[in-house]
Amino acid sequence: MEKVFIPQRADPCVLRWDGWYYFTASVPAFDCIELRRARTLAELPEAPARVVWRRHETGPLSMNIWAPEIHRVDGQWVIYFAAAQADADEEGCYDHRIYALTCGDENPVEGAWQEAGQIRTGWESFALDATTAVIGGVRYFIWAQRDFRIPGNSNLYIAEMADFRTLKLPAVRLSVPEYDWECRGFLVNEGPSVLQHGGRVFITYSASATDERYAMGLLTLKAGGHPLRREDWEKSPVPVMVSEPENGLFGPGHNSFTVDEAGNDLLVFHARPYPGFRGTALSDPNRHAFLRRVRWRADGTPVFQGEI
Length: 308
Description:
This protein has one domain (10-302): Tachylectin-2, Chain A (5 Propeller). It has no helices and 21 strands. The protein has strands at residues 10-17, 20-26, 32-38, 50-54, 63-73, 76-84, 97-103, 114-118, 127-135, 138-145, 155-163, 166-175, 189-197, 200-207, 215-221, 233-235, 250-259, 265-272, 288-293, 295-296, 302-303.
């Protein structure tokens, strides 16, 4: 069985910065954002977790706080996350938008965080799972959002960033749910994360319902390609990570990437220890965070499970 890294933490994000590891994730109550740090990965699970922000009682930032990610952007700490509105109708409770928090202190776990507002993506609809990365010296914002003209819950988009909260629009659509393994239960592309290795650029993402059918896909930027040209991204027609019953992993996905102390690439992902839910998708707290070393084929492409 795969060893749990941090229990009951979904959508895990690990950042290594200036000799420290930082961890944040969705908490089971979806009511706050917590942050912890440690000098080593081994120490991170036992590091004290501090709540750096709590949901509002009413309004757009009051319910279902999902998928925080911590980054260093423009010389400051930034957490991107998604939130919905508690005092809305049932559908509105899941009508998320993307927001940012900032911290200018050296230690973000002990520092003061401020709300920096909504990230404007160019249109108003369900949006979540934002990440950011510098590719070829340019910073990009990558996220999932619904387009009512396209069947399904969410697609993947990318835009260049003018600053930590301003996008150079319009966005470019990278991927829509189209293969069978992306459309099981729900038509979903979400949870993008950027992996760069040996001069190559990859985006992983998650697809389908969040039970044992949840799976991870891969986009690969062609050699010499531009991140804002959709035709320069190659999409794997098959998933690159699926449930592993033999390892007690069901519905692996919504990942991030970090490196170990030796600089080896690590996949940080969540999975459940059983198929289905105990309760509902959101009431079941047992999406655990796991770590796994990324392996590399001779052609420079990543391997997340199985044999090379």
